[in-house]
Structures
1.
Amino acid sequence: MSTETEHQTYNRKIIVGLLIAGAFIAILNQTLLVTALPHIMADLNIDATQGQWLTTAFMLTNGILIPITAFLIEKFSSRALVITAMAIFTAGTVVGAFAPNFPVLLAARIIQAAGAGIMMPLMQTIFLTIFPVDKRGAAMGMVGLVIAFAPAIGPTLSGWIVDSFTWRYLFYIILPIAVIDLILVIMLMKNVTKLRETSLDILSIILSTLGFGGLLYGFSSAGSDGWGDQTVLISLAVGAVSLIFFIMRQMKIKRPILEFRVFQSWTFSLTTLLGMIVFALMIGTETILPLYTQNVRSISAFDSGLMLLPGAIAMGIMSPIIGKIFDKIGGKGLAIIGFAILLLTSIPFADLKDDTSITFIVILYTIRMAGTSMIMMPLTTAGINALPPHLIAHGTAMNNTMRQIGGSIGTAVLISVMSNSTKNASTTNPINAVIHGMNSAFIVAAVLALAGFILSFTLKRKVQKEGQPAR
């Protein structure tokens, strides 16, 4: 099937298939090592602090590279970028599979993340370029499937693999898929984006790295180390100051690395904020529920991951369907219903007990993820539809960056609320204290969902058409 755009020189289905396969394995890697960390720690003789860096470094590298992708998309052809991203990711997978020690394995994760960080916003930009406005919802629904399903099956797949084989099979299984996708990309990928005259501003890259990297590391560490930790405070301070200087510089230079003028559009600003809230709630819930099942109910890590799978499947199935509904009715109604579901499911989660039915938790979480699918990609699409075509790459890069930060902030806030409430609980029973902490965290989650619900009513009802000025 050819495109309905200018030259009809590429097959849209082939491009969609190549990008979804590449993005799926790239995002899967974000959570793939979570369950395997104890095995890796034992095998490579490292402690938990070092082991955690295998996940943290992946997220940080993603967070640093994503803001730069708008510049890369304008500077280099889409074909060259997809090939480069997949080649970098594949190289990291090879290094990880045969890593003899921890430093090499950590380097492999950073290399993988460099490829993944380019891939996600690049896929969204290409989809938004090759699909007309009235079909973008369905296209972005497929992106939602990848974002929801890949990270959720990571811990489950990881748990099964490390129980049956060694942790190196986590890389062995990904490697052939990455290699096949890379070969197909080289053979079949076409250029679809327009290049613009742009130059690399080194100072902007440095400020962006310190700004977004500092904030992401600070918020991620705050969840485990506490807000008063010296490293957390320094990281947040460096991140905030660098980000201020980065924004000031982007507003001055002729060709910014990341265009902050996208926030002049009220629709884009509001949908990005709501996207941050929903991602914070999703990542926060995915963090707290396994802690409940493992620490309170003594359920294995693998079974805890398995519990989250129906929710991931529900969101994966719903995302393309919701995308088609969005194309017909817009995002306002979907967002209102979605945030209502998040609010209503947060209330029972705020009343967990030491004998709450696991089946009830799985059903509630599955409904919650269905609600999440009504918000995440529809609002992303609505926000980017409000931008003129030349700002689409900047809009997708900004949206992905803000979503990462939203997830980090949400997890940090909910985990710190949980930790402080656990310490200050008026009970001598440690299990009851932990449950009290988790219930407090879900009360905060309910407040966030309520804020999202109220803000959803201010969204515009109609989908804005391409080429209209941003409002």
2.
Amino acid sequence: MDLFLQQILTGLANGAIYACLALAVVMIYQAIDHFNFAQGEMAMFSTYICWAMIAGGLPYWVAFFATIIISFVGGLAIERIIFKPLHSAPVLSHVVVFIGLVAIFNSTAGAIWDHTIKTFPSPFPDGSFAGLIGLHEIGMFFVTLIMLLGIFGFFRFTRIGMAMQAAAANPDSAGLVGIRVGWMLALGWGLAAAIGAVAGMMIAPIVFLDPNMMLGILLYGFASAIVGGISSPGGAVAGGFLVGIIENLAGTYIPAIGSELKLTVALILIVTVLLFKPNGLFGKTIVTRV
């Protein structure tokens, strides 16, 4: 029983990180109808920025919030400088740009901070709670949960948040009522980059810091978005927690999977959901009239 409870709690903690990346992925998808394959590399680069500030003497939480601001500005700039001119470009053009961003962020991080694995500090004390889950995992869960609740409140109760939702859902109608659609989409990019930065900074003490640290985590984020529903931000968050729990339980109780093949669980979930419920568990069916 203790083992089962331990895997559930750890799955919730990991799922909070997957939920963050899934939400960031969904926000970009709703803005441009494409997956942001560079989301993990953007989060990794932000995590390196935080590490550099901490190494330079800044307190952890000062560097943490400074990194969020820097990431927000960086995401907004990427949309304004790179993707705004590509608004009407073919799908292949977007894919090529995303691949280019992956290579740029990865190689630049390696060139600045080298490719050696580094330890990233945790703001939470060592130890565990009742021997079931580490204190960092508990702190990681609550930090990401607070952020997710804050984002929900932002979209639900603020004029800018509601304008961003309207711009993503129906740009033409939003523009007719005076919403500056282009800037709303840019703010979405900035917010997605900031969310990814939080995910990177929270998971780095567990997976350690190197330019490839987010590759597997991003796959879990994609799986979470697809399981929950690529058209539903709330569904993507729920999908993150589901994926976290399922991959932990599968790795523990299915001997053929173990800890080495947990990524396989994410791939199986993606294929299964696409086969039987293409819109995700909480996604909306989009009907187009012709």
